[in-house]
Amino acid sequence: MNPRIHFRLAIVAFAMAVAPHAAAEGYDLGNLKLSLIDDPVQIDLQQRIEPARLRDLIAAGAGAKQWKVSKESPGRLELENIVRGKHMARVEVAYTDLGYRVSYIESTNLLYQERQRGGVGVRAVHRTYNSLLTNLTGAINIAIAQPVQRRVGFARLEDVDALPGAGEEARNAYRQFLRASLPRAFAVGAQGEYGWSEQRVLQRSPNRTVREEFREQQDPVEIAVEQCKRKGGGRSCRLYAIDDRVVLAGPPK
């Protein structure tokens, strides 16, 4: 085969291989350093642990990753981690004999922000924060020394039946959402309203990158929230999930 033709075929094959990955980019937060925040993080135990004992295990695991107890009350610890003297993260750890829950309180120099999209807040933070939380819960779970279940937000992403106040129509829509490409968003209301959207490139342009064309499409969060409000006659809605993450912390009110 002509070497030039072989080279061109190789380039085409490479482009076809990377295209699906480019098209599957997640929700655009406008800064590659940012990620949707892991909040709250819930850890469920398989076997009960007496709360006083669990408190000590949480403190021991946290200490192994340089988290310090800054405040304490019954069933609650406040932990703080200062990284290289420049970055600070503070979280609440609420615990019972069934498990514990880690919730964001505040941070310094970790780019925490809540952006308004479609009238609802999209919470983001530097990727370092989520890594700190993963290391924290991992160390605590090692100290606990029993199998646990970890989830971020109100429920596990794939748990269709956990969708709050949902009827069969909403659950079927959520199943479609789970099969949709990224970026995507799903919104819910207090009375079972819902809306969802995935963002698609409808027409390719040889002069624009995939990311540039994605940005020109309407925000999937805005579309999901608008659909949800329309179904509810204008009642407020909240984001339930974005991409592969449940962002709702608790049931809609």
Q: What do you see in this structure?
A:
The protein has 253 residues and is α+β, with helices and mostly antiparallel strands. It folds into two domains: 119 residues, Alpha-D-Glucose-1,6-Bisphosphate, Chain A, domain 4 (2-Layer Sandwich); 87 residues, no CATH class. The protein is built from six helices and 13 strands. The strands form three sheets. It has a six-stranded antiparallel beta sheet with strand order 3-4-5-6-2-9, covered by helices on one side. A four-stranded antiparallel beta sheet has the order 11-10-12-13. It has a three-stranded antiparallel beta sheet with strand order 1-8-7. Helix 2 crosses helix 3. The chain is globular and about 50 Å long. About 8% of the residues have low confidence.
List keywords for this structure.
253 residues; 4-stranded antiparallel sheet; alpha+beta; Alpha-D-Glucose-1,6-Bisphosphate, Chain A, domain 4; 6-stranded antiparallel sheet; single chain; 31% strand
SSE series = HEEHEEEEEEHEHEEHHEE
Rg calculated over all Cα atoms? 21 Å
Query: What does the main sheet amount to?
Result: 6 strands, antiparallel
Mean pLDDT comes to: 87
For this structure, what is the CATH class of the largest domain? Answer: Alpha Beta
Query: Architecture of the largest domain, CATH level 2?
Result: 2-Layer Sandwich
Taken together, the total number of domains comes to 2
Strand content: 25-35%
Provide the structure class: alpha+beta
**What form results from the Cα inertia axes?**
globular
End-to-end separation in angstroms reads 66 Å
Instruction: Tell me the total number of β-strands.
Output: 13
Low-confidence stretches: 5-23
